[in-house]
UniProtKB/TrEMBL annotation:
Taxonomic lineage of the native organism: Eukaryota, Metazoa, Chordata, Craniata, Vertebrata
Protein family per UniProt: Belongs to the IL-6 superfamily.
Gene Ontology biological process: immune response; positive regulation of myeloid cell differentiation
Organism: Acrocephalus arundinaceus (Great reed-warbler)
Chief localisation class: secreted
Matching InterPro entries: 4_helix_cytokine-like_core, GCSF/MGF, IL-6/GCSF/MGF, IL6/GCSF/MGF_CS
Protein name from the UniProt record: MGF factor
Keyword Secreted among UniProt keywords: yes
Entry keyword ATP-binding: no
Alphabetized PROSITE patterns for the sequence: INTERLEUKIN_6
GO cellular component, one term: extracellular region
Keywords: Disulfide bond, Glycoprotein, Growth factor, Secreted, Signal
Pfam families, alphabetized: GCSF (PF16647)
Amino acid sequence: AAVPAGGLALLLGVLLWAPWWALHGAPLTELSGDQDFQLFLQRNLEFTRKIRGDVAALQRVVCDTFQLCKEDELQLVLQDLDIAHVPLEQCHKRTFQAETCFSQIRAGLRVYHGSLATIQALLPEHAGLVETLQLDMANLSSNIQQQMEDLGLATVTYPSENQDPLPTFSSHFHNQVGGFFILANFQRFLETAYRALRHLASL
């Protein structure tokens, strides 16, 4: 069922300006009845779950290969590393805004897509899994962009080639720990993105 134009404008106004906690009581029947949007959410919840599983598999490899398994034991080393932090504050409960949340998810996927080159160099025998993960991330980002365009939300088109410089590490050990934190941070990023999609699906 298509969303009536007036209903869509009202819906976007609620989605873009209401904090997450206020959305629970908001009249979003137009959204919940939009089969295309619900299909998008369900499909990409599955997609995000698959990506999380692949990241978890790489985390196990890092643990088994380098004995880097516990984040609390590596916090001191983290201070010496230049690891990109990807904010998702617009996807959290108190500040939830659909347009900026979707944009932040896409921006984060772009950053981590580039950062995974560090993992590929660290674990060359698992290059195939990293490449599959990067392809899935590109597809997820494309799906979100398409849905934003369908809803009339503003989108940013990123260049196809990653322009961000890769993090540099001063030693092989720092490189290994950097790989550990890239995956750990990416997993947290995915968990937040998953919760945001699941929240929209539950409205």
